[in-house]
Amino acid sequence: MAKPDLQPARGTHDLIGEEFRRHHHVVDTARRISSLYGFEEWATPIFEDTRVFSRSLGETSDVVSKEMYTFTDRGGESVTLRPEGTAGACRALVTNGLTQANLPRKVFYAGPMFRYERPQKGRYRQFHQIGAEVMGAAEPLSDAEVIACGWHIQQALGITEGTVLEINTLGDAESRDAYRAALVAYFQASVDKLSDESRGRLEKNPLRIVDSKDPGDRALVADAPTIHAHLTVHAARHYAEVKRALERFGVPFRENPRIVRGLDYYSHTAFEFVTGRLGAQGTVMGGGRYDGLVEEMGGPATPSVGWAAGVERLSMLLEATPAAPRPVAVIPVGEAAEGAALDAVQALRRAGITAEIAYKGNLKRRMERANRLNARAAVIIGDQELAEGLAQLRDLDSGTQDRVPLAELAARLG
């Protein structure tokens, strides 16, 4: 058969069958677990005013400068398909007037994101994320609780084997000022060995050099100073309390002083859940504290913390694909039984039982369809059964068959 002319756009893919069930299981599990922690689900628009992301991610960041899907609409406005979910949640907090009361807000979200980048394993141009944000809480306990929620989701998915939580602190503003000065002094001594990109960052944002993927930069970063020697008393106490709470929550972790967030509104806790099971794309969930982002959106000072995780990556870690529900096949034999079969299939559905009815064919063809559907049982209604108000109920695994009153089918199959 010839290959169709129309294919999914590069970097996108269809979610069908087993792949969709894996995807749905990840999102549904995350939704269920986050609700146990008091998170409410929000849904923000898939596209936003471009300034939502240029303010939140920084005009010079790779996402803004290279990866965003930005276009001018018919009204002359610059809009962008969302590359991540946190900025939209913060914007929604401000524009819906939610910054003054009922804080903190604990928000869960799930949905598609868009970045123009080279497609690779577990990463697409249209990809999907889940995320959790606690907006309006400065306490270290909120950092630990949002991390514990992410760990609980991974436990519920059965994917924690080989996954490690790595944490670091970015300190407060005073800590970061001292750390920036130390980094600039260190990298200036070897500026000729830095990549062109990192040389450009040296004066503007030296923290981002610490996260560089360039091999030459990484060699220099290995001996670079860490922030821990520059923490204020307040910042050191915040970090210690986060670690203490994580231990009480039963979340194992290791410290990694090279985890950074390069933007000014990030502070204190930064973290990543990493695994060796996905090759180079080892981060499955990451986040941190972003105390200045709501202000970037025009709101008041609103300390916040959260994480995001790629659904595609999480689904790749699942040991097994969740099974599709096995239906009950309702099979009328003869025209007279059609009406009773329709009543029966709807009664089963109303009782919460997945049920199918073949649209046409004799008994043999309809039974063949039931087998293709991997049905667990067949309800066969013929003229004699109809006259007696019964059905033949056949267990398609064992082959056993009983005569069951039509009114009792749901109870027998529930």
UniProtKB/TrEMBL annotation:
Residues annotated for L-histidine binding in this entry: 84-86, 115, 129, 133, 261, 265-266
HAMAP family, per database record: His_tRNA_synth
GO biological process assignments: histidyl-tRNA aminoacylation
Subunit structure: Homodimer.
Catalytic activity, reaction form: tRNA(His) + L-histidine + ATP = L-histidyl-tRNA(His) + AMP + diphosphate + H(+)
SUPFAM superfamilies: Class II aaRS ABD-related, Class II aaRS and biotin synthetases
Gene3D superfamilies in the cross-refs: Anticodon-binding domain (3.40.50.800), Bira Bifunctional Protein, Domain 2 (3.30.930.10)
Alphabetical list of PROSITE patterns matching this protein: AA_TRNA_LIGASE_II (PS50862)
The protein's Enzyme Commission number: 6.1.1.21
Span of domain Aminoacyl-transfer RNA synthetases class-II family profile: 10-332
Principal place of residence: cytoplasm
Recorded GO CC terms: cytoplasm
Superkingdom of source: Bacteria
Family: Belongs to the class-II aminoacyl-tRNA synthetase family.
Record's protein name: Histidine--tRNA ligase
Compartmental location: Cytoplasm
GO MF term list: ATP binding; histidine-tRNA ligase activity
Enzymatic class: ligase
